[in-house]
Amino acid sequence: MTRSVTVRVPAKVNAQLAVGAPRPDGFHDLANVFLAVGLYDEVTVTPAEALRVTCSGPDAGQVPLDATNLAARAAIALAAQRGIAPDVHIHIAKDIPVAGGMAGGSADGAAALLACDALWATGASQEELLKICAELGSDVPFSLIGGAALGVGRGEQLTPIEVGGTFHWVFAVADGGLSTPAVYGEFDRLTAGTDVPEPSASPALLTALRKGDTTALAGALSNDLQAAALSLRPSLAGTLAAGTAAGALAALVSGSGPTTAFLAADAESARTVAAALLASGTCRSARVAVSPAPGATVV
Q1: Which amino acids are annotated catalytic?
Q2: pLDDT exceeds cutoff 50 at 141
Q3: How far is CA 174 from CA 21, 155, 254, in A?
Q4: CA-to-CA distance for 94 and 100, rounded, in angstroms?
Q5: Is the four-CA dihedral 102, 104, 106, 111 of positive or negative sign?
Q6: Cβ atoms < 10 Å from Cβ of 164
Q7: Where is mean pLDDT largest: 110-124, 152-166, 168-182?
Q8: Mean model confidence pLDDT for the chain
Q9: What CA dihedral angle connects 297, 44, 108 and 148, to 10 degrees?
Q10: What pLDDT does 1 receive?
Q11: How far is it, in rounded angstroms, from Cα 286 to Cα 171?
């Protein structure tokens, strides 16, 4: 009987994204407060004659199905470490927006890694898996652990954060994606010649998360890439304004965009904001989700 393993993995929102000046290696030091949110991809791996990737769900046509896909790269990396062939069929059931600043690709990489680890019974420790995740991409380690965490360095060095309540979000999905390297490039252009401070986590934000204080969290959310994302996609300003007008406590671009995130007071308010965003015509879809959510989990 052909055995398969399915892993469920969440999207993320950056409650804070503080960005430093470019480093010699081209990356930026970050203080990145990640929250996993309840929008999920499911990745299933099944033994096959050769590595292949398929995808279903919204935006599936935008997902690369070759070896550039982070899920494929994860399988190849784990197989190479264990001295075996990465002969699996990886199927991604996609529900996280593609190229939307919500780490959907990173989530698939973490999910495929955990699924292959289970399928092949490699017995890798979480530390070993996190090391592979960090090699795959800056957001991949957080997708594996979920919950809430502060990421420093490129965002891959994680410290779990205590969260004392549930937060209600609305995510407005834009038409088309935004390239993360392009957004960072625009950030560098906009900040050229200025003194970019060393990134650090906001004490007010961490306190709001620990206390589960939605109002305080709303006042502490920040994203240093927002100006760059708005510069490349000025129409996002209309989406942010529509969500705020509908009663969102705070609005910001999610990560490198173009998805925009809105913090709502409660579940009912989140539904109201989502309906208003859809009616405004400033986004393609509006999704309601709560945080924190668990990381990659075998189902």
Answers
A1: 12, 139
A2: yes
A3: 28, 25, 11
A4: 13
A5: positive
A6: 11
A7: 110-124
A8: 95
A9: -10
A10: 43
A11: 5
* 99: its two tokens: 């190229």
For residue 52, the cross-strand partners are 89
**Beta-ladder partners of 19:** 30
33-53 average pLDDT score: 97
User: What sign has the CA pseudo-torsion 19, 254, 55, 106?
Assistant: positive
**pLDDT-based confidence at residue 2 (cuts at 50, 70, 90):** low
Query: Is the predicted pLDDT of residue 156 greater than 80, yes or no?
Result: yes
Burial of 24 by CB count in 10 Å (0-12 exposed, 13-18 middle, 19+ buried)?
A: exposed
- Three-state SS letters, the chain: CCCCEEEEEEEEEEEEEEEEEECCCCCEEEEEEEEEEEEEEEEEEEECCCCEEEEECCCHHHCCCCCCCHHHHHHHHHHHHHCCCCCEEEEEECCCCCCCCCCHHHHHHHHHHHHHHHHHCCCCCHHHHHHHHHHHCCCHHHHHHECEEEEECCCCEEEECCCCCCEEEEEEECCCCCCHHHHHHHHHHHHCCCCCCCCCCCHHHHHHHHHCCHHHHHHHCEECCHHHHHHHCCCHHHHHHHHHHCCCCEEEECCCCCCEEEEECCHHHHHHHHHHHHHHCCCCEEEEEEECCECCEEC
